[in-house]
Amino acid sequence: MKLIFAGTPEFAAVALAALADAGHDIALVLTQPDRPAGRGMALQASPVKQLALARGLPVFQPATLKDAEAQARLAAVGAEAMVVAAYGLILPQAVLDLPRHGCLNIHASLLLRWRGAAPIQRALLAGDLETGVCIMQMEAGLDTGPVLLAEATPIAADDTAATLHDRLAGIGARLIVDALARLPLPAQVQPADGVTYAAKIDKAESAIDWTRPAAELDRLVRAFNPFPGAHSTLAGTPVKIWRAAPTDGAGSPGEVLAAGRDGIVVACGDGALRLTELQKAGGKRLPAAQFLAGHALAPGMRCGADA
To answer: Using the 8-state DSSP alphabet, how is residue 109 labeled?
Structure first.
C-alpha cells in the first residue's frame, strides 16, 4: 500500500521499520524539524528521520501542516493511507481527508483511557494494572477517533517507562501492519464518558515528596525512568533515583533507615522505599553498593528539601 508516515521518536521509528519490512511503499516520511540536543546543543535528527534516511525514504519536515504548500506536497503523493505515531503536529481536517483510507494513529494506551501526550507515564503513575495499544481512525479531536484494533498488555511491578515503551512500540508496529492488511476494518466508536487525559510530563513532577506513600513513590520512580528521572537530595547531595522498591520500615518521612549493599532504605509517608540505583549530578548511574562507596550514609540522615 502507498503510504505517508508521520512520526518523530523511537516509538514511531519501530512502526516505520515494520511497515517498510512488510513491503509497503513509504512514499513520504513526515517528522519534526531537527532540534538542538546534547551538551553542545547541536541540531539532531529525530529517530524517524535517521531511519528514513538510512532506508532511502524521502523526508519532509514542515513546521506546520496548516499551510497550503505543505498540504499540496502531501496531496501530490496520492497515498492510500497515512500512518501517524507520536508525530507532534496537529493534522488539520484537510490533511485528514487526503488519503482514501484516511489517517491511522498508533496510540500507546487502551482508549478512551489516557488520551494525549504521555499515556505510558500516566498509566504507570496511576498504578494501572494494564495498558496497551490502539489503532485509531483519526479525527480532528485529540485521540477521539474510533478504534480499529486494540491489544492489551499487563503492567508488571518492575516495569519502567522504558520497558513499557519498548513493549508497546513492538505491539504497535505489529498492529499497524495487521490493520493495513485488513482494511477496511469495523470501527468501534469511543464512549462519551470515562475519558482520562495524559498531560505532557512536567519536570517539576519528578521531585520526590517523601511524605507520599512508598507505593506511590515507587510508581513515580518507574514512570520517570528514563525521562526526566525522579530526583531528591540525599544527605544534602542532589541525586536521581533510577530504581527503587517499597519495603517495610517506618520513620519520619525522608529519614534514612538503613544503608547497605542491598540498598538505601528511606522512610515515606506510609512505608519505606529501598533505593537500589542512584546517580549523583554529573556522575554515572550506580548500584546502591557502589554509590555508598563514595557517599557515606548512616541511619538518621535525611532526604529531601529539609535534609
So the answer is: S
